Amino acid sequence: MTREELPNLAESKLTALVVDDNFVNQSIHQKLLSRLGIQNDVVCNGKEAVDAHCSGRNYDLILMDMDMPIMNGTQATKRLREMGIESKIAGVTTRANEGEKKEFMEAGLNDFQEKPLTISKLLSILHKLDFYVQT
Amino acid sequence: MDLVQMQKSLQDYTKSLFLEGILDSQFLQLQQLQDESNPDFVSQVVTLFFQDSDRILNDLSLSLGQQVVDFKKVDPHVHQLKGSSSSIGAQRVKNACVVFRNFCEQQNVEACHRCLQQVKQEYYLVKNRLETLFKLEQQIVASGGMIPAVELGF
Q1: Cα–Cα distance, A11 to B9 (Å, whole number)
Q2: Tens of pLDDT along B20-47?
Q3: N or C: fewer beta carbons within 10 Å in chain A?
């Protein structure tokens, strides 16, 4: 897909939260979202994601890493759902075993993608979660 | 060397990194994200990777150097390095980390020491090659030229 063919979702005013403890991944995920016109914030672990929502912030989409210190993605997803957060949450992680994936999904994910994240994987998430608008 | 020759050298050099398996298609993904609003995106992310990796490799050396190795400390570091190397397309570093993690699971100290050496070797190789790549790009830009797109053709 060329740069010119990428949909720009800026008009839809979508917002996203990147939850990842790895600075390289944070940078890439934020750039992927920005490239599609999606405003985004970043936090470093599940607890910060929960705290952000407790302070009143809300997002259309959360890209949730699985392995993080303090509070991992599975715990954070469960906690956010218990709080009544209805944002779409997509788990993104490097290859996890089937048991770990199942536990992560059952915590309340709407979708799951293996890292590394690419433009097509992100578009697939947006499409599956009904965010993607054909231009 | 004139501009056209420099651009050809860069293309050939970049291709060689893919042919040798040092980089994979994820690196192309990063290049696709680079644009006029952020023309240094790839080098910024790769610099982050270098900083992160230097720290992780140092921590791993310390952890594995302990009398009693705590694999609960070693494994997360290797996992981190596997993740970030995968994200920038540093294929051989990632693959070395996969092997390393398997030996962490087995708590095989000797094998982990060997793995650390292998990871370091692959990391210094990709670091060296990417630094050369960025220097070639800088030379082209300094000469007023554009960085050619990579055409892998395989």
Answers
A1: 42
A2: 999 999 999 999 999 888 889 999 999 9
A3: C
Q: For chain A, say whether B33 makes contact (Cβ under 8 Å).
A: yes
Alpha helices in A1-135 (DSSP H): 23-35, 46-54, 73-82, 98-106, 119-128
- Interface contact A23, partner B, CB < 8 A: yes
Q: What is the pTM of this model?
A: 0.90
A127, B152, A29, B53: CA torsion to nearest 10: 150
> Could you say which of A94, A115, A119 has the minimum Cβ distance to residue B32?
A119
Q: Do A22 and B32 touch (CB under 8 A)?
A: no
Helices within chain B (DSSP H only) = 3-19, 25-33, 41-64, 71-88, 91-106, 109-142
Residue B62 confidence (pLDDT): 96
Percent of chain A with pLDDT over 90: 76
Q: Biggest alpha carbon distance in chain A?
A: 41
Cβ A23–B52 below 8 Å, yes or no? yes
Residues in chain B, pLDDT under 70? 151-154
Structure-block tokens of residue A89: 């949450």
Whether ipTM exceeds 0.85: yes
Q: How far is A130 from chain B (nearest CA, A)?
A: 23
Chain A residues with beta carbon closer than 8 angstroms to that of B44: 27
Q: Is B50 on the interface with A (CB under 8 A)?
A: no
pLDDT in tens, A94-110: 867 889 899 999 999 99
Report angle CA A116, B133, B147 to the nearest 5 degrees.
Answer: 90
B120: contact with A, CB 8 A cutoff: no
Check whether the bond before A116 is cis (ω within 30° of 0). yes
Residues of B in contact with A23 (CB under 8 A): 48, 52, 84
